[in-house]
Structures are given as structure tokens and as C-alpha cells.
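Section 3.1 - Work completed
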Amino acid sequence: MVRDAPRQIPLSLPHVARFGDEDFLVAPPNAEAHALVTGWPRWPDRLLLLVGGPGAGKSHLGAIWARASGAAVTLTPDEAIAALRSGGDEPRVLLDGAEGADENALFHALNLARERRAHLLVTARRVPTALWPRLPDLASRLRALPVARLQVPDDATMKAVLVKLIDDRQLVVEADVVEYVARHAERSLGALSDLVDALDRESLARSRPVGRGLAADVLARMRHQED
């Protein structure tokens, strides 16, 4: 009887994503949004809505703008309100994550940004719909904003981001395995991050490099978890 190789228990070590300017991979699906956001202060309006799905790069692109503009980085409307009030003349604020936030506070933050002549970048997973936001006045305010859209990644972007994530974790993966993973992975940059994390952990557990067989097992397991 052939026994499986013993598995190690990998330590859950912290992984720090790199949000530097040079780490944002500009490609056709995100080039227009990147140009619009980084074109500050030549925005079409002082307020801008940046939209994209999970893992599309909203926080990364927002961080690039915040460094370039000296903006305060906030995660809730209440934090944004505080930054707008204390930011001096024409403050600059990033509100990273509008969906799920208190809608009355978000409405107040948008109004205050107008009053203070602030530059405000707001990120969200989508533009306003019939389901979000529920507050009609807030929906009206958000629909009036110019939008920078991070589109669904194409094949070239998927591969480039996969290579970056593998490099971030200092994994050694052959080019043919990268091609295989890019073809079979869920078409989401957020899912790619989870996938590379799973590949790293499985490689440590098996004490083996990330080969095609290991990658196929991890991909199958992740698809099964989604079902």
C-alpha cells in the first residue's frame, strides 16, 4: 500500500500586500481608471467614485492617490467626516469602502466634502443600483459623481497579477504552472490572492514546490468549496 507523504502543519504567517505605485499593474481593464484617479487634481469633479469588484485594486489605487495627494485614508464615513473637519482648507480624503457603511453618515460626508471644497475619493464595489443605497438622497448624490471603473481582468492581467502575487510570497513556480493556474482560476483578482495563499500553504504542508499536480488539487478544492 502506498501511503501519502506526511503533511506538515504550516504556520499562519502574516502576508503584507505591497501597495506601492510600482506594484499596481496597469493593463487594459484598469488603465482608464488608473489614468483618471492618478490624473488628480485634473479630475472632472472634486469628488470621484472608484468602483470595482472584490480584489480589483480599489484600495491599492486609492492608496496611490492618497500618497500623491497627501489625503487622509479613512474606512468609515464617520472617519471621513472627522478628516474633512480637521483637514484645513480644501481637505483631501480617501473613503475606502462605501457599501455597507452607514448611509446617513455617508450622505453627510458627501455634503460636507462639498461644503469644504474637499477632494474626496470614494471606493465601492459597484455604482448605485435599485438595491444600494436605500437612502434616495444618497443614491442621487452618488449617481451625480464621475466614475472610475476597474473592469473584469483579461487573460494578460490575470497572469501578470498571478506572477506578482507569487513573487510577493517568494514562491518558485514554473512558467507552465503559472499558465495553467491563470487559465483555470476564477476570473477575479481577489480570488487570485486567496488562491496563491492556498498554494503557499499547501506547498508548505506537503514540503513540495508548487507543481501542476499540487495546483490542480488546490484549484479543485477551492471550486468544491464554492459549490
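Second construct:
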Amino acid sequence: MSCLAQEDYLEKGNTFLDKGQLSKAERAFRDGIKADPTNLIYQCQLGLTLIQQKKFAASEIVLQQVLKNDSNNVAARWYSGIGYFENTQDRKSVNEFLKALPLIDKQSGQYYSANWYIGKCYANLLKTEGLTYAETDQMFASYQEYLRLQPDAEDAATIKAYIEHKKARRPPANVKIWVDL
């Protein structure tokens, strides 16, 4: 298979994605995978397409297979984190974004976005199943990194107030799990 033919699948699928034609994008990426089963880009894009269609279980299977072949695949980590977030699996989302952070260029929008997702997932968990002291530290650190990189973000004031409020209410380190409804 020539490189030109391989690029056509990617270009075609991404064009469908951009237009919101998700079933056509899914078909293009599946065709690309049939043509070149080792192409991890097609697989990652298929995973993204499945997430956008809310086919979370199918997406997880595709992206976990990519990560089995390449544990440092940034796109698969990123899309997995997004998929878990969209499917309200906050612990799994945090796990993927924490693994992605060292792989992401610190100057990129993905880097500050990953920190936002980590903070947001931990904030969600704080209201439901609770956080350990270390997880609370990570929530604060992630949100603070996001604010450092995006001081003028629309949600910056809200996040700053949230951090201050939670720090004031935080129990001592001997509390194993903190649930703050």
C-alpha cells in the first residue's frame, strides 16, 4: 500500500470528522485499518470517532489496543482520557491524563488542558467517592498549573475561588478519604 493511499484514509476520515459526519468517519478509519492494520494513527482516530458517537466501550477497546502496542502513544492516552471523562469515569480519566502529561509539550494547549481535566475529574470525585490527601494535593497542583498557564481563562476566577474554598475546608492528613459534598 502506498503512502498516498494511506494518507487518503486519514484525510478522508478527518474531513468527515470535521464535518460531524461521524459514521462516515468511522467507516473511513475502519477501511484504513483494514488496509494497514499496524497504522496506529487510524486506530487513534477511530477511537476518537467512537467517543464522539458515545460508543465508549468500543472506543476503549480500540485505544487500549493502541496502548498495548505503544504505551507512550500520546493520542491514545489523550483520547482515552477524554473518553473516560465524557463517560464520567473520572478515576480512569485522571489516570490517562497523568500518564499523558510527561509526553505532552509543556508549551502546547494540550498541556494546560490535561491539567484542567485532572483538576476537574478530581473535583468531581471529591463530591462523590472522595479523595486521599495525595489526590487532593494533585487536584490543587493541576488546577494551579492550569491557572498559571491560562490566567485569563474564562473559568480562572471560579477555579481560584474553588481552590481557596477547598483548601480552607480541607481536613488534616490523617483523614484517609475526604468527601466534600
